[in-house]
Amino acid sequence: MAFSRMTxxxxxxxxxxxxxxxxxxxxDGDTDDVENTIVxxxxxxxxxxxxxxxxxxxxxxxxxxxxEGVRVGGVNATSGDGFATxxxxxxxxxxxxxxDVDVSQPGGVELLAHIVVRILSVGQYPLFVRSLALDSMxxxxxxxxxxxxxxxxxxxxxxxxxxxxxxxVGAGPDFVDPEGFVLDVPNxxxxxxxxSPGARRVMSVALASGDRTIVSGLGAGVGTGPPNFNNPEGIxxxxxxxxxxxxxxxxxxxxxxxPDNGDRTDVSSNSGTGGGATTS
Length: 280
Fold this sequence. Notes:
The protein is mainly β. It folds into 2 domains: 2-121, Immunoglobulin-like (Sandwich); 129-275, TolB, C-terminal domain (Neuraminidase), CATH 2.120.10. It is built from no helices and 23 strands. The strands form 4 sheets. Strands 1, 2, 3, 4, 5, 6, 7, 8, 9 and 10 form a 10-stranded mixed beta sheet that branches. It has a 5-stranded mixed beta sheet with strand order 19-20-21-22-23, with no helix packed on it. Strands 11-12-13-14 form a 4-stranded antiparallel beta sheet, with no helix packed on it. It is elongated and about 80 Å long. The N and C termini lie far apart (88 Å). Residues 1-37 and 275-280 have low confidence and may be disordered.
């Protein structure tokens, strides 16, 4: 019976040795170490950092005739030249990813690898942070990235970033011009304002799934005073009354709405229809 195991990891060069196990007697004098095959990881190096959710591991097999398959982090590698060169697209989780390599040889021999590459996935790098909100209960700092059109959070204990909604995460209408937002952590949601022409609305985002729903504006709910939002920006939430309050720059005033039906009420604006009128 043969058991093969990688015994050296150095600069991406992986060397396996075959150990032949004799029968009986504990194997003393029956073990013969023979270098069996070499697989080289050409990208990335032994350690790496990325903001992507997937990484392509590329490598070569100088003795390709001795290799029938390569597996990286449980993902089967593909090759167009009999594994002389190969690659595997490996999904990453936030934080440290330790990726092992397994190699199969003719005759069903499996080569078991130790650590191949350590990849730290830190999450998507922010490009234009527009607004912040703290979830102190869970140690998370949420933020809106206006350029990426996403809602994400930073784990304060580790600094790792996680995409919550947008950028391919969550169903529903895409963000167009996210401005401000407020968290309602007990109910697992956030309310996000958007003020771009054609998208003047407030959306509710499910924090667990990233799903987005228009809760007020653009046909969701009706309004007293101004019938619709003009340019909603600042936003806050009153858990005592389950009411969302919005500062609308285009209306020069403040609007509240019921998140259950989206109905809007003019709280205070130049229209004078709310609890008080502002002056310009």
